[in-house]
Design brief:
This protein is 30% helix and 23% strand. With 1280 residues, it is α+β, with helices and mostly antiparallel strands. The longest helix is centred in the middle third of the chain and has 67 residues.
Length: 1280
């Protein structure tokens, strides 16, 4: 639709609107859309990893926080710690109800269990109560005590104090009664304190809810402007209120009940005057035609009454007076003066609260339906705050996964003194919820939530607000069996153990007595069975062998009979065990030999089967219709799986980058747009003024022209004042305060000489030996952020304007014109316009190496003109570690030579996983210190790694102004670690105070440029003003002359002065132009780069970085073309990496470029990769692969290198011996050689010519080899 014609609206963020839509379609839960005007469902992007979104129509996803993780498209997050529940309100992981944290000595830490964390939570173990004891709501034991200790027996007392448990549970105008509720079979019975008013009481808080119905209803909604509106309906009509003191805003429209918080506890409100809401800071409003609730501001209306509470005679120290809002807030208001516009004055207009006319139920229990909510008032009295706190360890709670993060946040706001007077929470899940007064933990209230389609229990039939009692709690369904554990009954355990030990000892004693005394021994001496056996012949049943021996001994039988009897028996009297062992060992050896032979036979059979299988496979592959082997087909399937997996990873990477890069761009959008608009207006006005001045040089202008030119000058001033500057309030050069030996601040006047230049001071300041600036001496101390005293670390210097201690990195630059070093705010305009390079501190490794590293594999091949200094037009260099051409990012000092060298390096591209140059503003992957996982960050600086002496990118998180940690991007506000001042992130360096961290910094060089540009603009405007003053004076002089007739020409004196002023104008213009160009390069060009990065991230999230589609010749399937992923190379029949993409200009088809090379170390054929190695055909050196290209003559893809042809030739490289010189020396030693000097000289000359010819031939051969290598590819390289 057309917005103006059809009165349409822009589709809001979080929604998408098709053509002709009459209402927006929300993005599903788990997705988001950060842009307005989306037209397709594809605009709804899945939430990236470690974020979630459980609500439809959201413009962004919520981070999981450091204690939880999630996959993409998540509705919630999973806590890292066991038995923890993720609370979506504040992205915190707290212990599940019924679990807690135990310290090292086994003591429960309930407060720590309610905090965000990653430690595993353990089940709560309750103390075992004695028989007849009861439990409090938190599980502690209560014992029965005398009836005289409470007003209404039975009485239950706290074991530790001996006082009545319900003594303070009710206010003074009510009496408490202890009632019992059975929790479950494990926990037992709990005590509930029921409060009741005296019969006939006239206190409005003692109303009978069954006789006094609710007279006022409440509902929250959101108007068209997005502000929360409270709808109040009573007997007099419907009223609407803005709630500036509301701590949390409802997500949509919902009904509400009202509970008042006061020193007497909680009171369920049945009826109240509207003035009570006004005392809580509510502002009455009315809806206009645009459906926006506008405050009612009539002269006699309620708004005037609310303003009365902000008078200067306000006294927050009054005793026994109830105030709306936290005590900390009112304590601050004591010191505010009239007209003070500090935070909260315009939001919270309430002060003293009078609830004398509020009708309610004290100590209430509420019943509401799921989806409805409860509004509490937040008050304070005598310095004590009264607001609801959730009781997570209450035995009555049934929703163990309740998200009470909003109540934790309320407590934080109250403690910090935020202007909150009311709090609202929606209950979406049925269950029982227990709350207590933060100022008096004995005052409690219970809220029961039923399903939206069910009615409240019968006890709440007359009124949803009832006095809290055991019967009311029992009317709600009980939850699942609790997981609480009771401490063991040690008395019973020890009793059983001692009983078993006693039985064991008695049994052992009996056995011992039986053995010693011989119970029944006399009977055993002559047993009856022996008497019976005396009449039997037991020899008749003995073995024959025994009988033979017996007969032989007795001599009763002859030898023949004995031989017959002994037949079939073996005589073991001569048995030898050693002989048996030897026989068995021989048998074992024989069996082992036979098994070995069988094993060999089986192996031969297996080998034969394997050979036949290979032969059959070759035959099958030969007759395969595709022409590829099964192994090649398997590799093709693996390629496809790898590419699909990599495509998903890159899309997730893009989804993670979109919000980060978008935020960085948005941080600069306002500044950039304002600068572009201002520049266009300024240039146009200046051009008009110049044209008017030039016209005045030909003829004196009339009064109207002069007036228009003066108006242009005024508009120039106005536009100049309207230009926003984010650094207008920044103190340039602020840092840590240097301290002397007595820990007194060192005055800057002590640090400078008579000319105002910093000077060395013994034991305090010294001259840096590398860059010549003043730095603190070793052992000195400084005060950071105005509070902490620490030792001054290395790599810090003194700012010449303030005398403060600042880091060298990020503040000190090299003037590329003079080669000198200075802080950014002290550089000249010419130096700033030439883009000075930052100084990066060099660091030595443990082995004594430093940058540039002596271990760099290609350092000896890099020519001097490619080492970065002096700078070339492109400001690039060749990285000696990878051979890539990289931008110069800064300079440092070579410790070995003392010279200044350029700094640049390469890293792994997070998208392609190939080596790529390090560039500020690009993306790098690091381990997130907050989540512990690999995440994408924006490169904000570089450092020299002290472990490898290589250049490494810097990125990370920054502590924001609220105490949290945010991803570091340009424009994020932060508090400077050295000065404690609020600044904006423009870069980061290695933290001098902690080498494991990064330190965010602002850019003083930009501030210096802005102020120099401001001076140049003022100078230009001043020149134009002088020209205008001269023109006005000349015109007035001519018009005042009586002899004027017709048109007059300017005088020669006027023209001479005007020419002189125009010369000054041109000089001012020439000063302004380079300054503006330099600032545009740092602001507008940077913003354009951020725009390109956002487009890149969105494309990466949508397409995964696909460059097109290619057909795999093996699987004959289309696959995405991704740089850095494998593809099949038909020329080499190998899998190669896609290193580049070329597009056919005629057809638009794309093709990946990749090839194989012969590894110069292993000699095997491998896929070429950026940063890999190959052999230089001309020199035989190993050189890095930095790119690939297609040979136009052979169409073969060939690797290329920035160091090709730069290595020494083979003749000079091998052994370092000159063959011609060696041969001349040998000839000179021949007989007669010494006396024939002339001849020897001629031979030497001849050999010199031969040597020169050989060198020329060598150069020709190298050129021939290089051309042959380019034409024939890697085969020629193999031969070389």
């Amino acid at each position: 639709t057309n917005i103006s014609m059809h009165r349409g609206e822009i589709c809001p963020a979080g929604y998408w609107c098709g053509v002709g839509s009459w209402q927006p379609v929300p993005c599903d839960a788990g997705t988001f859309s950060a842009v307005e005007g989306a037209r397709q469902p594809a605009a709804c992007t899945a939430c990236p990893r470690n974020s979630f979104n459980a609500i439809t129509g959201q413009a962004q996803c919520i981070p999981c926080g450091s204690s939880a993780v999630s996959t993409s498209d998540s509705l919630s997050c999973q806590c890292k710690g066991a038995n923890r529940v993720f609370h979506a309100f504040d992205s915190a992981c707290r212990c599940r109800q019924g679990y807690t944290i135990y310290n090292s000595v086994g003591q429960a830490q309930p407060l720590q269990a309610q905090e965000d964390g990653v430690l595993d939570c353990s089940v709560v173990v309750l103390t075992r109560c004695a028989a007849g004891d009861m439990r409090a709501l938190d599980g502690t034991c209560l014992t029965s005590c005398a009836d005289t200790q409470c007003t209404n027996p039975p009485c239950y007392c706290d074991k530790s104090t001996g006082t009545d448990f319900c003594a303070t549970a009710c206010p003074s105008f009510q009496t408490a009664t202890a009632e019992l509720v059975q929790v479950d079979t494990v926990v037992g019975t709990a005590v509930v304190c029921s409060c009741a008013c005296a019969p006939g009481s006239t206190d409005p808080k003692c109303a009978d809810p069954n006789q006094t119905p609710i007279a006022t209803s409440y509902a929250f909604s959101v108007d068209k402007s997005g502000q929360t509106v409270l709808q109040v309906i009573d007997s007099t009509g419907t009223y609407y209120y803005q709630m500036p003191g509301l701590a949390t805003d409802p997500a949509g429209t919902s009904n509400s009940q009202f509970i008042g918080s006061s020193p007497t506890g909680f009171s369920g409100v049945l009826d109240m005057p509207l003035s009570f809401l006004e005392q809580l800071g509510a502002i009455e409003c009315a809806y206009d035609l645009d459906q926006i609730c506008q405050p009612i501001t009539n002269s006699n209306g309620t708004l005037i009454r609310r303003l009365l509470s902000t008078e200067t005679d306000f006294d927050a120290t009054q005793k026994d007076v109830v105030f709306a809002g936290p005590a900390a807030y009112h304590a601050q208001r004591r010191f505010w003066k009239a007209g003070d516009r500090r935070r909260g004055v315009a939001q919270l207009r309430a002060a003293v609260v009078n609830d004398a006319n509020v009708v309610g139920v004290q100590s209430p229990m509420l019943c509401i339906k799921a989806g409805e909510g409860v509004m509490w008032s937040v008050t304070s009295s005598n310095g004590v705050d009264h607001y609801p706190q959730y009781v997570p360890d209450s035995l009555f709670n049934t929703n163990k996964a309740f998200d009470y993060g909003a109540f934790v946040g309320l407590g934080t706001q109250v403690k910090k003194g935020y202007p909150v007077t009311t709090f609202y929470h929606t209950f979406d899940t049925p269950g029982i919820y227990t709350f207590r007064d933060a100022g008096d933990a004995s005052k409690e209230t219970v809220i029961g939530v039923v399903d939206a389609v069910l009615d409240c229990p019968r006890a709440f039939e007359q009124n949803p607000i009832q006095p809290m009692s055991a019967s009311m709690i029992k009317s709600f369904p009980t939850g699942d069996e609790s997981n609480l554990v009771i401490t063991p009954d040690y008395a019973l355990i020890f009793g059983i153990a001692f009983t078993l030990i006693g039985i064991l000892f008695v049994s052992l004693a009996c056995l011992y007595v039986r053995k010693v005394t011989g119970w029944g021994r006399s009977a055993a001496l002559g047993p009856d069975y022996r008497k019976v056996g005396e009449q039997e012949d037991f020899h008749s049943i003995a073995s024959k062998r025994q009988r033979v021996r017996k007969g032989d001994q007795a001599g009763e039988k002859d030898l023949d009979e004995l031989d017959d009897l002994a037949a079939g028996y073996v005589d073991l009297e001569g048995f030898n065990v050693q002989m048996l062992f030897d026989k068995l060992q021989d048998q074992t050896h024989l069996v082992a030999e036979q098994l070995t032979q069988q094993k060999q036979d089986v192996r031969e059979f297996y080998d034969k089967v394997t050979r036949e299988t290979v032969t059959l496979r070759a035959l099958v592959d030969k007759h395969n219709s595709s022409g590829f082997s099964s192994e090649a087909i398997k590799r093709a399937e693996k390629r496809r799986r790898d590419i699909d997996r990599e495509l998903r990873r890159r899309k997730e990477l893009g989804g993670e980058l979109v919000p980060t890069l978008t935020r960085q761009r948005d941080n600069f959008a306002e500044i950039t747009n304002a600068r572009m608009q201002f520049t266009a207006i300024f240039d146009d006005l200046v051009q008009q003024v110049k044209q008017g001045v030039q016209a005045a040089a030909g003829a004196v202008p009339d009064e109207e022209v002069v007036s228009s030119l003066q108006d242009l000058i005024k508009r120039l001033h106005d536009s100049f004042r309207q230009l926003p500057s984010p650094h207008a309030s920044v103190n340039v050069g602020s840092g840590a305060v240097l301290l002397d030996g007595a820990r007194h601040a060192v005055n800057k006047g002590m640090m400078v000489d008579t000319e105002g230049t910093l000077k060395p001071i013994r034991g305090l300041l010294r001259n840096d030996e590398h860059i010549g600036i003043i730095v603190p001496s070793p052992g000195t101390e400084m005060k950071v952020s105005g509070r902490h005293v620490v030792s001054v670390p290395e790599n810090c210097c003194i700012h010449p304007e303030t005398g403060h201690v600042i880091p060298i990195e990020g503040n000190v630059y090299i003037d590329v014109m003079t080669g000198t070093f200075a802080v950014g705010s002290a550089l000249s305009a010419a130096a700033l316009c030439e883009s000075p390079l930052p100084y990066i501190c060099n660091r030595s490794t443990g082995s004594g190496d430093s940058y540039p590293s002596s271990h760099a594999p290609y350092a000896h091949l890099v020519p001097d003109e490619d080492k970065g200094l002096p700078l070339n037009d492109n400001r690039d260099m060749i990285d000696p570690f990878t051979g890539l051409r990289v931008p110069v990012l800064g300079v440092t000092t070579d410790f070995r030579t003392g010279k200044v060298v350029a700094v640049g390096g390469a890293m792994m591209d997070p998208e392609t996983r190939l080596m790529t140059p390090i560039r500020i503003g690009n993306v790098v992957e690091f381990e997130d210190p907050e989540s512990g996982r690999i995440s994408a960050f924006v490169i904000m600086g570089v450092k020299i790694d002290p472990e490898t002496a290589r250049v490494a990118p810097l990125a990370g998180r920054v502590a924001d102004l609220e105490g949290g940690h945010d991803i570091m991007v340009r424009g994020v506000p932060f508090r400077d670690e050295f000065s404690g001042e609020k600044r904006r992130v423009m870069m980061c360096v290695a933290d001098p105070l902690n080498a494991t961290r990064v330190l965010p910094l602002d850019d003083d060089a930009i501030i210096r440029l802005e102020r120099l540009e401001e001076i140049a603009r003022e100078e230009l405007i001043s020149c134009l003003e002088k020209e205008m003053a001269l023109i006005r004076k000349e015109a007035s002089s001519i018009r005042s002359s009586a002899a004027l007739s017709g048109a007059a020409k300017p005088s020669d004196e006027f023209l001479e002065k005007l020419s002189h002023l125009q010369e000054h104008e041109r000089e001012a213009d020439s000063k302004l132009a380079p300054l503006r160009k330099a600032l545009d390069r740092r602001i507008i060009n940077s913003y354009q780069k951020m725009e390109n990065q956002c487009a890149y991230a969105r494309d990466l999230a949508a397409t995964g970085g696909q460059k097109g589609k290619i057909n795999d010749p093996v699987s004959e399937k289309e696959m995405p073309l991704l740089i850095g992923c494998p593809m099949y190379d038909e020329q080499s029949k190998h899998d190669v990496l896609v290193l580049a993409v070329e597009e056919d200009e005629e057809t638009g088809f794309v093709d990946g470029l990749g090839c194989t090379v012969v590894d110069p170390v292993s000699g095997s054929t491998v896929a070429a990769t950026i940063g890999g190695r190959m052999r230089d055909a001309s020199s035989g050196e190993s050189i890095p692969i930095t790119s690939v290209h297609r040979d136009p003559s052979t169409f073969a893809v060939l690797p290329d290198s920035t160091l090709r042809g730069l290595a020494p030739t083979k003749a000079s490289h091998g052994m370092g011996i000159d063959a011609a010189e060696l041969l001349a020396g040998l000839l000179s030693q021949l007989p007669g050689g010494g006396g024939q000097g002339g001849k020897g000289q001629s031979i030497s000359d001849l050999l010199g010519k031969i040597g020169g010819t050989s060198e020329a031939v060598s150069q020709s051969d190298r050129q021939s080899e290089r051309i042959t290598f380019d034409e024939d590819g890697e085969e020629e390289e193999e031969g070389g």
